[in-house]
Amino acid sequence: MRSSKTLLLALPFLIMLTFLLRHRPSDRFTDATPFFNNLTTPPLLEVDVLQHVDIAEDKLLGGLLADGFDGQSCLSRYQSILYRKALPYKPSPYLVSKLRKYEDLHKRCGPNTPSYNKAVEQLKSGSNVVGTTDCKYVVWVWYSGLGNRILTLASVFLYALLTERVLLVDRGNDMASLFCEPFPERSWFLPMNFPIAKMFNSFDQKSAESYGNLLKNNMIKASMGSLPSYVYLHLAHDYDDHDKLFFCDDDQALLKRFTWLVVKTDNYFVPSLFLMPSFEDELKKLFPNKETIFHHLGRYLFHPSNHVWGIVTRYYKAYLARADERIGIQVRIFDKGPGPYQYVKDQISACTIGEKLLPEVDTRRLAVNPSKNPKVKAVLMTSLVYGYYENMKNIYWEHPTVTGDIIGVHQPSHEEQQRSEKPLHNMKALAEMYLLSLTDVLVTSAWSTFGYVAQGLGGLKPWILYKSENQTTPNPPCQRAMSMEPCFHAPPFYDCKAKEGIDTGKVVTHVRHCEDISWGLKVVDRYTE
């Protein structure tokens, strides 16, 4: 009886897969043209999206995702597994349980519930009286570029899990068009009439409402019976020593008394949470494999909207699906000037060929004897400029490879400059991050949050292209990452107990300095000198 019931439940999913196999979509890209202008590669043959997919794969990602969502309202939520090879990283049972408990909390305390309305009334009153509300909140403020926003939102969500707060998201000008709702039944978006929403843009390091300034001016103390109705946490790159006390347990005890916390940050601050004794045991249970934090939270939270998902899937089917291997190369140069730069072209070649990610070419011969088993390798390159793609494309078009492998090089767009305030630009950026995460091998650029997102979603340890000094090709050109975790670019260097400076990259073995930013911090599972 039970097996019959299971078969009935699985039948719709099997029918959908059978339909996809028999009715593969055309490789024409006409409906994506408005979104991927300046396409730079011709389409490959019609593809079979499911060629690498076992239909028995778990669409809930090992229990990471909740069941019961309307599949049509967010196609990417349950379809993403069809485009990705099986990954070895499974969420811990404790994390799965924690997420289900959070969803219940969000359902009970989310926007427009009686608990939320009561908390908003307290916010309007101007004072924070402990115990008058049964729900506490942390509000994430829309700030910085898309890569930063994805990483910071994951950081704030982890903080919400650790402190049993409800996460509410400032939608800015594009969040609703980029991502599906991650939680069942209740929105994660802050209602438009939130009392202090109009103040978000003006919040900065000098704001009187910031935790650091409240401390400096003796406006809040642990001994106070009544506190302000909210506190602003400035955790951006320009925060000062008082702001950084957020990462001390004594200060967390004080912050715990506030119903409303409002956070503005451009940092992936997860590594410093791992240095806090009050969170240590919980983090161990949530993430036994410590380098999977963003990998799991990112796949739980960030499901591309149907609009963005259409861009992703059309491009994947047209250019990547039939390849035996997919290599992602993300190029982000912070030098002034338009580029492309010859030293970067040389660096990309030195890394990809030196690490045997791509084969060498034979420049002396017009053709080579065909290999008995040649591989087709698709290179997906993302960059704001066109020249790096054009250089690699010409190399593999004009010369045969010494292995006989066939190399196709593709670049979806070249926007020339970052336009983070433009929703259309961000749709393309998200689609390209996601496409990079679907590759088998990844090369990223130092300092780039764009690359951090791709590697985390894909469960990939990338080769990192070192940042150049004096516009010369670094030697070595790249290094394999210790971990797929992103780097915290501006961590505090402070011992909360000793109240003195300390190298926080040498406190515990699982929080180390980053490969691409010597002062940054990242979480690793195992560290070897």
UniProtKB/TrEMBL annotation:
Per its UniProt entry, which superkingdom is the organism in?
Eukaryota
Signal sequence bounds: 1-22
| Annotated localization | Golgi apparatus, Golgi stack membrane
Report membrane topology.
Single-pass type II membrane protein
Q: Does the keyword NAD apply?
A: no
Q: By its UniProt entry, which Gene3D superfamilies does this protein fall under?
A: 3.40.50.11340
Any GO MF annotation of the entry: galactoside 2-alpha-L-fucosyltransferase activity
- Keyword Protein biosynthesis included in the entry's annotation: no
Q: What is its EC number?
A: 2.4.1.-
InterPro entries given for it? XG_FTase (IPR004938)
Q: Which GO terms describe its biological process?
A: cell wall biogenesis; cell wall organization; xyloglucan biosynthetic process
Sorted alphabetically, the Gene Ontology cellular component annotations on this record are: Golgi cisterna membrane
| UniProt KW keywords | Cell wall biogenesis/degradation, Glycoprotein, Glycosyltransferase, Golgi apparatus, Signal, Transferase
Where the protein is mainly located, per its record?
Golgi
| Role description | May be involved in cell wall biosynthesis.
Family of the protein in this entry: Belongs to the glycosyltransferase 37 family.
Q: What is this protein called?
A: Fucosyltransferase
Species source reads Gossypium barbadense
